[in-house]
Amino acid sequence: MMFRATLLILCLSSSWAQQVPVQEFKLDNGMKLLMVQRKGAPNIAAGWIAKVGSVNEHPGVTGISHLFEHMMFKGTQTIGTKNIEEDLKLNLELDRIKAELRKEEQALATKLRVGEIADAKDPKARSPRHQQLLAEFDKLNQRQKDLLIKNEFDRIYTDAGASGMNAGTSEDFTIYFINVPSNKLELWFWLESDRLSSPVFREFYTEREVVAEERRMRIDSTPTGRYLQQFNSMFWKSSPYGWPVIGWTSDLEAITREDAMAYYGANYAPNNITACLVGDFDPAQAIELAKKYFGRLQRGRREPDAVRTIEEPQYGEQRLSAVADTNPEVRIRFHTVADGHADEAAFVILSGLLNDRTGRLYRSLVLEQQVANGASAGHSGHKYEGYFEFRGVAKAGKTPEQVEQAIYQEIEKLKIDLAPERELQKVKNQQAAANFRRLQANFSLMEQLLVADGYRSWQTINTDPPRLQTVTAEDIRRIAKKYFVPEGRNVLVLNTKRPAVAPTGGGQ
């Protein structure tokens, strides 16, 4: 039994050395195709990533990357419409009316600033011209809706046996993916190249309202959404990571289709996109299909701009306290490092030391001190910046402030004591096992390769895991001392909203 256990540890410790056999082909227009051939799988995990997210936006168009995620499913000049000529005319007419509406909205905003009206969205404050334009706008939207062939992208894929079509937007990238049968690979190349070469952005203004409603559901209508958004904005003083991926409400209401087309032209060029296939296919055939379909995409006139604004240093603790319909909790966040930094591996191992039921936070805060029902910590290394966050949910009868102090005690231990080698090796083995498991499923591997290429390079899927095995106890102590400093703390305290006490009747 001892021999088997030792053998398992040795296998897990060395599994990070497994190299994923990726073939890369680069088209003349700059687009990359990554391929991992795995014979025998009936489906191919297929996807592509645009290296653009909310961090690439600017005030006035926040949320446009996520809005694009929605618009890319609306069809092209060949898919999604009964009459493309009429469809395109309606888009231009909608843009014209929207420009006139924008003038009316700006006039109301001016009145609001000088106190002439109390609410710029109050229909009673609108001019007769404003009301007339809105009526025309609604008629045009209805005419375009009548031309739509709804969800045609999804129907074409589903009829061909594909499944799981979806997309996602983050701070640093936007990713699109699906599972396609092995004999329908050319269909994927055609459909994806078509929506990259000839997007129409029909129903733009109505879809903008859908996203605004999604924002209300995710943030404004949840018990903690507004406070977490405010905390994030407080944490990032200058960096564009300070606004939410879904965007600010005022920006979502103001983005135009012209804004979207300009943003698309700059960021959805093939030289800013990587595609990936994992499954049973012939790489030589895939390359020919890539040339035929993706090769027709025009390279961008210039390379997309890198993010310029970096986070300014923090010189003092920042705190946000609020009352919400949630369990009382505390979050403590520190500025750390971006993806790929030399210290990132140590933060990943530190997360393993602190987390789960055998981790330090649970043992100390939940089992020993009994001040919390749950506790966790983790590192978020974005493309340009990073942070490490501790979180604890207070036990009944305890306060978030008590949990906060208990977390500080654990942080101080990290700065003083070296982690025992056995504890450190256990986390490394867990990381090695997790990395190994993530490589097994085709879909998971496809996503990992695309995300890795969206950050630095797909090669990091092979080169990053070995770095975790080199982390030492001194590395853990060093980063704790360097980054977890009082003047760099950002603290969110959420207390439970108390129910109102009904007045009692007259007593003696």
CATH fold call of the largest domain: Cytochrome Bc1 Complex, Chain A, domain 1
Level-2 CATH architecture of the largest domain: 2-Layer Sandwich
> Which class best fits the helix and strand makeup?
alpha+beta
What strand order characterises the main sheet?
1-2-6-3-5-4
Order of helical and strand elements: HEEEHHHHEEHHHHHEHEEHHEEHHHHHE
CATH superfamily of the largest domain: Metalloenzyme, LuxS/M16 peptidase-like
CATH secondary-structure class of the largest domain: Alpha Beta
How many helices does DSSP assign? 18
Count of structural domains = 2
Q: Termini distance?
A: 74 Å
The stretches of 5 or more residues where confidence is low (pLDDT under 50) are: 1-16, 500-508
Outline the biggest β-sheet.
6 strands, mixed
Task: Report the strand count.
Answer: 11
What is the approximate shape?
globular
Q: Please give the radius of gyration in angstroms.
A: 26 Å
Overall pLDDT score: 92
Question: Which percent band covers the strand fraction?
Answer: 15-25%
Q: Helicity range of the residues?
A: 40-55%
